[in-house]
């Protein structure tokens, strides 16, 4: 990125504004890709824990904290500096969720029931569409809740997961 900034400065100083605008567009695209890459890592973490919850039919404090942390980080990363626009619009998650699910299977297989299933076997027993639908529902909360109200909304959804009532009651 340092080279792009140097080129931008040079273009402006030389009065080559069309070239400068092309560089600005490239920098903007690079920035967006970086945000999406970070969001993707939190999506993978979210999906790993949703897979564990679906297969093991329980919810631990650790999993709940990881799910909540992932959603909070995604909300923060996805909100652009103007505080009104998002890098990923609410209707644009399908491709990212599908790719994140595929990336989450292998690490999830190492964690689900202490590594009982191979990635291929785990993928066969997990209801991918249900996981993606649930992940989308958690993501939807980031558009309808403030940073302050989001943790409470997440807790409500967590209590509806398998084992969620027991988790909520501290059992």
Explain what the structure shows:
The protein is mostly helical and 171 residues long. It has one domain. The chain has eight helices and no strands. The chain is elongated and about 65 Å long. It comes from Hassallia byssoidea VB512170. InterPro entries: DUF29.
* Count of extended strands: 0
Overall shape: it is: elongated
Largest sheet: none
- The Cα radius of gyration reads 20 Å
Task: Kindly report how far apart the N and C termini lie.
Answer: 51 Å
Strand content: under 5%
Low-confidence stretches: none
Q: Please, how many helices?
A: 8
Pfam families: DUF29
Protein name: DUF29 domain-containing protein
């Amino acid at each position: 990125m340092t080279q792009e900034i140097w080129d931008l400065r040079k273009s402006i100083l030389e009065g080559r504004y069309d070239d400068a605008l092309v560089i600005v567009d490239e920098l903007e695209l690079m920035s967006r890709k970086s945000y999406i890459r970070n969001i993707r890592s939190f999506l993978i973490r979210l999906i790993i824990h949703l897979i564990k919850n679906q297969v093991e039919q329980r919810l631990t404090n650790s999993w709940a904290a990881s799910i909540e942390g992932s959603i909070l980080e995604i909300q923060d990363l996805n909100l652009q500096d103007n505080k009104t626009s998002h890098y990923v619009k609410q209707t644009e998650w399908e491709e990212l969720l599908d790719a994140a699910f595929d990336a989450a299977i292998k690490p999830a297989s190492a964690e689900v029931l202490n590594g009982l299933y191979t990635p291929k076997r785990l993928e066969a027993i997990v209801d991918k569409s249900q996981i993606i639908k649930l992940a989308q529902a958690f993501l939807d909360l980031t558009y309808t809740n403030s940073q302050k109200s989001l943790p409470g909304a997440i807790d409500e959804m967590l209590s509806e997961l398998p084992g969620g009532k027991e988790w909520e009651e501290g059992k």
